[in-house]
Amino acid sequence: MKIAVMGAGAVGCYYGGMLARAGHSVVLIGRPAHVEAIRRDGLRLETLSFDEHVRLEASTETSAVEGAGLVLFCVKSTDTESAGEAMRPHLPADALVLTLQNGVDNAARLQAVLSQEVAATVVYVATEMAGPGHVKHHGRGELVIAPSSRSEEITALLAGAGVPTQISDNVIGALWAKLILNCAYNALSAITQMPYGRLSEGEGVQATMRDVVNECLAVAAAGGVTVPGDTWQAVQRIAETMPTQYSSTAQDLARRKRSEIDHLNGFVLRRGAALGVATPANRVLHTLVKLIEGRDAQSA
Fold first, then answer.
1. Measured between alpha carbons, how far is residue 300 from residues 108, 119, 192, 256, 291 in Å?
2. Which end of the chain, C or N, has fewer beta carbons within 10 A?
3. Cβ–Cβ < 8 Å for 121, 99
4. What percent of the chain has pLDDT over 70?
5. pLDDT at position 126, please?
6. Alpha carbon distance 246, 157 (integer Å)
């Protein structure tokens, strides 16, 4: 089976690289600088246990999804519909698309664009692009996927490539659990430009994170979503398991790129307003990140 990675940034390159390393036919669809480096030298996959150059295909063209039986859809949440539209003419009718994205509504938004089966996927991995064609892995790597017609097959395929994967009947709850982690860490890491370990030790940070988490849980409950597990324990575990990781929002702001904050704290803000739940801590974090984005856009 051919596997295509649509939007091969840090997350897509990590999972695509792991699958290619296990012998699968993989094509990464990404930005020119990365594609050029990968075509020349292979993908440098630097993990906690190995540092290798993995040979696989790379393209800047969306048409490279042609013939793929599985697509890992890894674009920014802001680009979900446009990337889906670009992919649609080239995608086989029987392809399965997994949405490896931040936020809770991407699968529904993408399914509205595509006739192919789309399965929501929750991603727990710390990665960054350390240079053109060079992905650096900081920790974890497991996936949680929604049930689909091919869930068992895909779970076995991923597990065989060293990617722990489980199927969940409550993937919306798992997506909310991940969203809450993002809301607790992403904006604070972005505003301070600090990694999770140092950030979590800062004065007042734990109390601020608790406020954010409690607001998110209140919004989820008001919307009828059951969030699995001990959310606060999961938040604290992030700093322990990914101490050197900067949030994707921090990486975006450092590069003066538009972030996904509207689909993280901003999403909680909008859902809270719709459901009558106050979200002042999320509002402040969303506002500050948007101010930094606006400042950087004006100075660019």
1. 34, 37, 20, 8, 14
2. C
3. yes
4. 99
5. 87
6. 29
pTM over 0.85: yes
Identify which of 120, 109, 116, 105 has the alpha carbon closest to the alpha carbon of residue 83. Answer: 109
Q: Residue 44 in contact with residue 135, Cβ under 8 Å?
A: yes
Residue 89 tokens read as: 């003419």
**DSSP character string of 219-271:** HHHHTT----S-HHHHHHHHHHH-TTPPPHHHHHHHTT---SGGGTHHHHHHH
What's phi and psi for 43, nearest 5 deg? -85, 120
Alpha helices in 88-230 (DSSP H): 106-111, 151-160, 171-192, 196-200, 205-222
Question: Dihedrals φ, ψ of 135, to 5°?
Answer: -105, 135
3-state secondary structure of 190: helix
Interval 261-275: pLDDT, tens: 999 999 999 999 999
Q: At what angle do helices 171-192 and 231-241 cross, to 10 degrees?
A: 50
Q: Output the pLDDT for position 297.
A: 73
What is the DSSP pairing of strand 134-145 with strand 51-54? Answer: unpaired
C-alpha span between 166 and 15 (Å, rounded): 15
